[in-house]
Amino acid sequence: MVKVWDGFIRGFHWLLVVGIVVLYISGDEGWLDLHFVTGYVLLALMLTRVIWGVFGSSTARLSALFHSPKAIISALLKDQPATGHNPAGSVMILVFFTLIFIQLLSGLMSSDDILVEGPLVQYVPYAWVELANDLHRDNIDLLLLAIGLHISAIIFYRIKGKKLVKTLITGHTTDSVSKPHMRSGKLAYIVFIVLAASLLLLWGQEPLLALWSVD
Ligand code: HEM
Ligand code: HEM
């Protein structure tokens, strides 16, 4: 057994899944206090993932996600054990990170045109707010499409005998791959908590208080 995913990457993934589900439902239902609070926590999570992508374990590195078209096509055509994400999966993950940051950034500049506006609305021209609102509504469909493809790929690999979900839960793979350089995810969790607390202090006090006072 080789350890390929550190504690932060494992926790990050399932926190991301819960965060996206809560954001989708709260956005759709118009529960914007919950939407904003979850949005700030998810922003902190994604920023921590980027920082961990520079300083973290070798399998968490963002630089490990860039591959030549030849390597990507070859990973699609034949099954090769990879230490971390395989080159085709890496493309999917870069697409995810891009779509999630577009969703977060457009949300910060969105407004429901009645009562609620994202914290950056006051700093940008109205044309940007209109664009951000459109982006926030349209990009969600791309994100849903990417999630559908992602889950289909995981099921496809499972049928072929690869237990990727188990590896993402336990951190260990049974594939014979080279041992990566691992770092303890604890430091990343500290960064995440500090960033989330800072964003909630900066922007989240109003929605947090509103959530608190609901009885
Ligand atoms: C909201 C839905 C989801 C999103 C946004 C999402 C996003 C991601 C991202 C960004 C990664 C890369 C992790 C990293 O290096 O930071 C990843 C990996 C992974 N995800 Fe998801 N995911 C979602 C749902 C799921 C579900 C439901 C499953 C299980 C059925 C799953 C299974 C996996 C697995 C196994 C990997 C590791 C793939 C590999 O070994 O290369 N994901 N996902
Ligand atoms: C990945 C993160 C996010 C997801 C998946 C998400 C998803 C959604 C969805 C599905 C809607 C409903 C759109 C519609 O009415 O058709 C929505 C609305 C909204 N979101 Fe987000 N959102 C995210 C992040 C954020 C953030 C960080 C903010 C601001 C802090 C934000 C602010 C808003 C606002 C103001 C609306 C209402 C727009 C309107 O009524 O026209 N969102 N979001």
Descriptors:
single chain, 215 residues, mainly alpha, Fumarate Reductase Cytochrome B subunit, two-stranded antiparallel ribbon, 2% strand, globular, binds protoporphyrin IX containing FE
CATH level-two architecture:
Up-down Bundle
Percent range of helical residues: 55-70%
What would you report as the Rg, rounded to the nearest angstrom? 19 Å
> How much strand content do the residues show?
under 5%
Largest sheet: 2 strands, antiparallel
Query: CATH superfamily name?
Result: Transmembrane di-heme cytochromes, Chain C
State the order of secondary-structure elements, H for helix, E for strand.
EHHHHHHEHH
Oligomeric nature of the chains: single chain
- Assign the CATH class: Mainly Alpha
Broad shape: globular
Structural class: mainly alpha
The chain-level mean pLDDT equals 95
The spatial strand order of the largest sheet comes to 1-2
Count structural domains.
Answer: 1
Unreliable segments of 5+ consecutive residues = none
Amino-to-carboxy terminus distance: 50 Å
What is the total tally of β strands? 2
**Count of DSSP-assigned helices:** 8
The small-molecule ligands in this entry are: protoporphyrin IX containing FE
Please name the CATH topology. Fumarate Reductase Cytochrome B subunit
Subcellular location: Cell membrane
GO biological process, one term: respiratory electron transport chain
Transmembrane segments: 7-25, 37-55, 88-109, 142-159, 187-205
GO molecular function: electron transfer activity; heme binding
